[in-house]
Amino acid sequence: MNMLLSILVDGVSYGMILFIISIGLSITMGLMRVVNMAHGGFAMLGGFMAAAIMAWAGTRFEAALAAASVAVALISVPIERLLVRQVYGRHVLDQALLSIGLIYIIVAGANLLFGASITTLQIPHYLTGWVAIGNHTIPKYRLFVTVAGLIIVALLWVAIERTSFGVRIRAAVDNSAIAQTVGINTSQLYAIAFAVGAALAALGGIIGAQIMPMESTYALKYLVLMLAVVTVGGMGTVTGTFAAALLLGLANTAAIYLVPSMASVAFYIAMFLVLTLRPQGLFGRSL
Length: 287
What we know:
By secondary structure, the chain is mainly α. The protein has helices spanning 2-32, 39-57, 61-82, 92-114, 140-161, 164-174, 176-181, 186-207, 218-221, 223-233, 238-258, 263-277; strands spanning 130-133, 136-139. A hairpin with a 2-residue loop joins strand 1 (130-133) and strand 2. Helix 1 crosses helix 10. The model has no long low-confidence stretch (mean pLDDT 88).
């Protein structure tokens, strides 16, 4: 029973981190039809910037988290305006090559500014230790990650399903050309979506640094995981990305506990099985 609870807690918290980091990539790929393989760089920048703000300015974890997320969103704006925008509608190879180039620039910059060693984030005292639930104990930080993920899921669902901004996004996803003819400013919409996606990636990188350590190769190391979550869930869908992140997170965690020798491939086996049954992803549309 204790092992099952541990698998559930660790798997869900890991899945929440994957979701927070990957949802921006899912939205940008589904909305803009751009393969932004540099998305993990925003998560890495968020973690490094939060650590730097805490070390240099002596700010609290919460303030550093907010400041770093906003800073990464602002950094993403000129990247989208000056670089990513140039490959809208271009062949997927052009998009992939541009974004891979961006990855290496971000990795080199992080290595220069922050070094090649793993950077740790000092979490608040009230998030350390354990909390007792019945006869079981759960790490406070993993509980915090899970709650943060659920709040973000709820906020994104409301924003996309219950606001005029969400209506415009769904219209642009369904048919960008028609959306423009009815007065929707898709250019502005893309910039906002890209910045929000970058901020969420930064947020995920920061709160997930205890589970996915922050290092200069982060953007490359976890790239496949992010792409897997988006592909399994179906591009452009919050529900699909959330379900995929939980499924893959639980599969990976269960393998670590139950079959350690399979831990390194369990994630990909789960992805293979889902895509074999549903090539368009869990909540993706049939082609």
